[in-house]
């Protein structure tokens, strides 16, 4: 059902809604243009991999140990060692079933240090125990290599160097299992990483303990940097709501509100009130309003003449809900009245 409003009020409402809509839309666009771009890192787990070096020490015949061998991490007497059996294991377990390529090699390095407690390296010598090998597979891959380490060979080398060159230092033999992996994921890209489990064996010592990072286990995480646009969401939501309310208001005004025409009577009244505002008094008290002894004049100009002759103000009152409006003059003997409906 259509509602009615006077045309001036409807026009004012349209202007108000339209103004707020334009203003809010401008602020909304400004808020959207004030966005900034930041980079975030997305992490995707594509699997896990693990590299391990394990060993068994073989002893020479000796009066101390029969068949028993000291456990891993315990002290070994250097003169009793025949050799060391070393196992190198690597496992990659993928989550996506993509191509996996692993490059690995086994190396040994002798590193000599000063004996001043700061462990500053003096010299080193490297050995390639097994050259680089590449293995490929789908999804998962396992590698197992075995080597026998002749410890006496390295002890003899260090002893000869220290005696010949009169160097007062300590030396370690570092066994490295060098592993580089490349795993392909069709969605998230390529995972590349390198790990190097190792064993550290002191050389030229009467006894020693084998230490080092024997086991390295890691999750395989692909990190992708993506740009993310950040906007002032609170402002955008607020101004969007304002724009929506204004558009809805305009929609209702245009479709469901009918502009009511201003009556000729009201046009006349408004014209008179605007033109003769200083001479007219609007009253609310109707006690004095009576047509008895009243003279009805033909036009408002005639009422102006009577007002000038009598020196009386023109009074104004709205009657019967705007259906008629009276302008009149009260005097001692006669009242002069002009009704807008019949007043020129």
UniProtKB/TrEMBL annotation:
Q: What InterPro entries does the record point to?
A: DUF5305 (IPR035185)
The alphabetized UniProt keywords are: Membrane, Transmembrane, Transmembrane helix
Q: Name one Pfam family in it.
A: DUF5305
What domain of life is recorded for the organism?
Answer: Bacteria
List residues traversing the bilayer. 12-33, 236-257
Transmembrane helix: present as a keyword of the record?
A: yes
This chain belongs to which protein, by name? Uncharacterized protein
Source organism (scientific name): Pseudobacteroides cellulosolvens ATCC 35603 = DSM 2933
């Amino acid at each position: 059902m259509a509602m009615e409003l006077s045309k001036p009020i409807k026009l004012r409402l349209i202007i108000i809604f339209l103004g707020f809509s334009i203003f809010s839309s401008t602020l909304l666009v400004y808020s959207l243009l004030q966005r900034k771009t930041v980079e975030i890192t997305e992490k995707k787990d594509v699997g896990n991999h693990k590299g391990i070096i394990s060993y068994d020490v073989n002893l020479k015949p000796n009066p101390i140990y029969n068949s028993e061998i000291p456990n891993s991490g315990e002290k070994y007497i250097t003169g009793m060692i025949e050799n060391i059996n070393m196992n190198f294991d690597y496992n990659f377990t993928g989550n996506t079933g993509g191509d996996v390529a692993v490059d690995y090699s086994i190396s040994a390095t002798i590193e000599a240090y000063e004996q001043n407690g700061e462990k500053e390296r003096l010299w080193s010598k490297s050995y390639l125990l097994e050259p680089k090998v590449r293995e490929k597979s789908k999804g998962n891959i396992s590698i197992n290599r075995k080597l026998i380490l002749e410890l006496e060979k390295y002890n003899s080398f260090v002893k000869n160097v220290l005696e010949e060159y009169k160097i007062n230092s300590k030396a370690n033999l570092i066994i490295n299992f060098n592993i580089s992996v490349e795993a392909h994921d069709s969605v998230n890209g390529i995972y590349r990483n390198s790990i190097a489990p190792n064993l550290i064996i002191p050389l030229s010592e009467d006894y020693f303990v084998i230490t080092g990072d024997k086991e390295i286990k890691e999750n395989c995480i692909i990190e992708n940097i993506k740009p993310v646009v950040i906007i002032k969401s609170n402002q955008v939501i607020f101004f969007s709501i304002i724009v929506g309310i204004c558009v809805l208001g305009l929609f209702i005004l245009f479709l469901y509100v009918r502009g009511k025409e201003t009556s000729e009577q009201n046009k006349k009244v408004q014209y008179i009130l605007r033109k003769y505002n200083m001479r007219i008094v609007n009253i609310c008290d109707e006690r004095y309003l009576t047509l008895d002894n009243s003279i009805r004049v033909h036009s408002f100009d005639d009422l102006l003449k009577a007002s000038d002759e009598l020196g009386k103000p023109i009074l104004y009152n709205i009657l019967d809900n705007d259906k008629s409006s009276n302008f009149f003059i009260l005097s001692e003997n006669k009242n002069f009245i002009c009704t807008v409906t019949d007043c020129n």
